[in-house]
Amino acid sequence: MSGMNETIRIIKSRRSVRRFKPGQIPDSMLQEILECAISAPNAKNQQKWHFTVVQNKDIIDKMESIMKENLKRSGIDFLMKRASDPEFSVFGNAPTVVVITADEQAFSNFVQIDCAAAAENMMIAAESLGLGSHIMTSTEFLFKLERGEALMRELGIPEGYGHVCTIALGYKDEVPATKPRRKDVINYVR
Is residue 63 within 8 Å of residue 93, measured between CB atoms? Predict the structure, then answer.
């Protein structure tokens, strides 16, 4: 499409990547992505979000195992089936996992929208740097059942903050095809 600016091109080319190469992303890229996260709009500029960056492979593996165990015990058919598939990987071998949490005292639709805006900024920034990303909300299961609170403490998530979503980041090990987008979801009142 001629005349499309770079930002629009990046937004339209971003895909959810579920398989990553093992190499860690450079710290300079990570810092840019996090700066973009905290540059997102947020209600009354309260910044009631928190970003826990996990790059320790042992901890990511532990998170993967807790998540699978909790999904198997979720009582939700499609999640139990997914977690039982030996091919299923929660984070797709991502070397960096960012858990986005929010202050539960501010836990309204506003703070969830704030965190979603920050997450989208992160994914667009990652795409612009040639990295892949994947947003997950099912990672709320990381913090369910008895191991959840202990994991929150181990990850250094602030007291009184609750899970909103998780972003996996890394170099792409797949190029997902474009999925069709519905055009009948827009109406105009002119």
Answer: no
CA–CA dist 53, 96 (Å, integer)? 7
Alpha carbon distance 19, 92 (integer Å): 4
How far apart, in whole angstroms, are the C-alpha atoms of residue 27 and residue 34?
10
What is the rounded CA–CA span in Å between residue 152 and residue 173? Answer: 29
Q: Are 36 and 125 in contact (CB under 8 A)?
A: yes
Cα–Cα separations (whole angstroms), residue 74 to 86, 144, 150: 17, 9, 19
d(CA 101, CA 111): 9
What tens digit of pLDDT does each residue of 67-87 get? Answer: 999 999 989 999 999 999 999
CB of 115 within 8 A of CB of 140?
Answer: no
Taking the C-alpha atoms of residue 83 and residue 74, their distance in angstroms, rounded to an integer, is 10
> What residues contact residue 18 under an 8 Å CB cut-off, 6+ apart?
89, 92, 134, 174, 176
- 3-class DSSP state for residue 88? coil
Is the distance from CB of 102 to CB of 114 less than 8 angstroms?
yes
Model confidence pLDDT, tens digit, residues 97-133: 999 999 988 856 799 999 999 999 999 999 999 999 9
